[in-house]
Amino acid sequence: MTNHRIALVPGDGIGPEVLPPARQVLDAVGRRHGITFHYTSYDDWSCERHRREGAMMPEDGLDRLRDRDAILLGAVGHPDVPDHVSLWGLLIPIRRGFRQYVNLRPVRVFEGVDSPVRGARAGEVDLVVVRENTEGEYSRAGGRLHRGLPGEKAVQEAVFTRAGVTRVLDYAFGLAAARGGRVTSATKSNGLVHTMPFWDELVAERAAAHPGVPWEKEHIDALAAKFVLEPARYDVVVASNLFGDILSDLAAAVAGSIGIAPAANLNPERAFPSMFEPVHGSAPDIAGRGIANPLGAIGAAALMLDHLGHPAAAKDVTDAVAAVLATSDVRTPDLGGSATTGQFTEKLLTLL
Ligand code: GGG
């Protein structure tokens, strides 16, 4: 029997609605594979806490998570708290504090799911966005001047370091080698004159260190268009923090719904716990209605199983998801169905 200590951080909005299904799936597949999960839930780390106490999590929040094997997070954000305050109060400190510099966002089109895109057929679209996760455009460097005056201005600096870019590129090239695929690097070196030429130089350098892996670079605007027009041509797409965030939401929509996309915030060296989350946010428009799609969170749980050394259990989860979508019309409204979160989860659990 293998034991794992898992931190649950449900967060805001639909976060607390999608984590229980992920937990039910983990427990079911765990029974089959001899894995026991011991959960500690941090229900209070949220925008509600911020309103009450002025902080999304306690000051020693990272210390409380440090000895967990992994973190499963729901969603962050509430209309009453500015988005940059909630994100920088919970999600980003965890990513940075635990050196989770790879944000892995796999996207595939499932049989039985209608993609809004012509060229996106099941079995053909199977790509992974590797998003740089601890620097880049997500930066506190900059400031606002002359607030409220006609000359008011805001300056936002992006920070790219040789070490930070190199390590995520090496991860992407390694992943492409393992998949027998290729790397596409997102750039915008025609418009951004310092950071993106630097990014491109490092891509060329790391490509030379991985001679067996084919690669290309594409400007982010053209790449976004091609994600919609020809999504099947992509394999591993490596991108900066902001570009990767946008591309992975776009790719999830191409696959049918942002509600089905999972993400893994990885510390590849395993010096710290990694964090797993659905790509979607807190979705205040549907929170409390019981109709959130749990598949993003369940996919995140599968990525967590893989990271914890249980690839067969992870495959059981993704196979069960594929089977439900391919063989039944039980699905949540974002995928065109009328099932509640609970009804969909019950259906999935019959296969685990
Ligand atoms: N599932 C976590 C969540 O709430 N994500 C919403 C979001 O805005 N994320 C921004 C980011 O991943 O950088």
Automatic annotation (TrEMBL):
EC number: 1.1.1.83
Record's signal peptide: none
Alphabetical list of Pfam families matching this protein: Iso_dh
Reaction it catalyzes: (R)-malate + NAD(+) = pyruvate + CO2 + NADH
Keyword annotations of the record: Manganese, Metal-binding, NAD, Oxidoreductase
Database matches in SMART domains: Iso_dh
UniProt cross-references to PROSITE patterns, sorted A to Z: IDH_IMDH (PS00470)
Family membership: Belongs to the isocitrate and isopropylmalate dehydrogenases family.
Domain Isopropylmalate dehydrogenase-like: 5-348
Known cofactor(s): Mg(2+); Mn(2+)
PANTHER family hit by this protein: D-MALATE DEHYDROGENASE [DECARBOXYLATING]
Protein name: D-malate dehydrogenase (decarboxylating)
GO molecular function terms attached to this record: D-malate dehydrogenase (decarboxylating) (NAD+) activity; magnesium ion binding; NAD binding
Keyword Metal-binding (UniProt): yes
